Amino acid sequence: MSQQRKFIFTITILYTILILYFIFLGFGRIDAVARMTGYTFIFLPDSFFKLPSISDLLHPALMDFVDFGNIAAFIPFGILIPLLYRINFIRFITLFILSILVIETIQALTLLGSFDVNDVIQNSLGAAVGFGAYKLGIRTKNVWRNIAATGISVIVLLIVVWGVCGGIDKAFTKEEGPFVALNELKDSTGNTATGTKLHSFKIGGQNIVPQFNAYSVEGKNIETYTYMLGNKELHLSLYYGIPDQSEFYGSISVSVDGHEILSNSEKYQRRKPDIFEFSLEQANELTITIEGNEKLWDIGLREMKYFWN
């Protein structure tokens, strides 16, 4: 074995030991064992190498670097292994994935972590980036030129992977659609005019001017409003409170498909406007019951959709 090969082999062994240390012992894993109540196996991917938002870029100190670390930490294996052994990409990535699967399984069974398919994907992406950088960068006998070319290749390939994974993540992540005021939907009587009487009022000295709709008992003691939502995944938002210059008496109840998601009365309410937000899965029927002097306003829904919908 040549001196150069011995050096690369030594670096590979030392780096492998370092990675195994962090996988099994680092980040307080030993202390966490006592808190573990059972094995954890996550077989469905729910995280990708996400593109940062504008807010993330403006506040880099607050960015979540876990995904990036899971990829970057395994890039060296994609460079070091082919430097030691002649191996094609298919064989390399297959053996690497099998190795990571074994490590993840040991992590879960020893309670030193969990089996997480997200880690398997991200670690394998890092190894693939390293292998690609090796193929693009190691082309001459000039060591420094090879190092520079490999480094540049790593950066370029990381950007490509970042973009592709960000696109995949966006394609399979639902986002909130445009705001739809509740009065734009037909209620159980087929009426779309309900809630359209927009009168300003004060709560806790704050002047409230409804922008979309306002609901009350309409001269009764209790009133119920029912809307059909079409069995959709939605995000509900509404404001409520008891106006000033009226008896502080009233209550609100909001139910979806027979399950109550909000119940509040004057006993627990503050003398100021309150907001309620709730995510609904496969919601079909929305029922709102108002009693006394309670008022609701600017009730609306945002449908959760994939961008290609």
Automatic annotation (TrEMBL):
The keyword Metal-binding does not apply. Keywords: Membrane, Transmembrane, Transmembrane helix. Pfam families: VanZ (PF04892). The keyword Lipid biosynthesis does not apply. The chain crosses the membrane at residues 7-27, 65-85, 92-114, 143-164. Residues 13-136 form the VanZ-like domain. This is VanZ family protein. It comes from Paenibacillus farraposensis.
